[in-house]
Amino acid sequence: MTGETWYHDTAIAAPLADGLSADLSCDVAIVGGGLAGLTLLHELIRAGVDAVLIEKQVVGAGASGRNGGFCSDGWAAGAAQITRLVGPEGAEALATLAAQGVAWMRAKCSLPEYASAGAKPGILTVSLSGRSGGEISGDGLRAMVDSPRYKSG
Which residues, including other chains, have CB under 8 Å from residue 29's CB and lie 6 or more apart? Predict the structure, then answer.
């Protein structure tokens, strides 16, 4: 790999825009071209809203582009920490929102226009150290993920 991610290395090169050169008027301006920003833009345009997305790098340059294409209802913080931060009702609301997001993505991926994406259900957990108890050998993992970085899964 030469870039930050496999996606970067295998991406179809797209011309970069020169940036904004004049004032722009719209109903909604979205800052950030990750999964959340792109989803919001998609849904707003479908609803007939005049929306614009502004991204300082390339679309998916941040965490959305490094996530390996997975979609889960988890958070960076654990359930106990989230509950401490937002209370039990807030934690439940966030859990419901996350589950709805996964359901939305699953439905979106099953549409005929996304068939070529080859979405597959399931989770592959990999180890950087090789010390984790693995159910997938290094050779087996390399057959699934073309990267020398991961040692077992």
Answer: 51, 52, 54
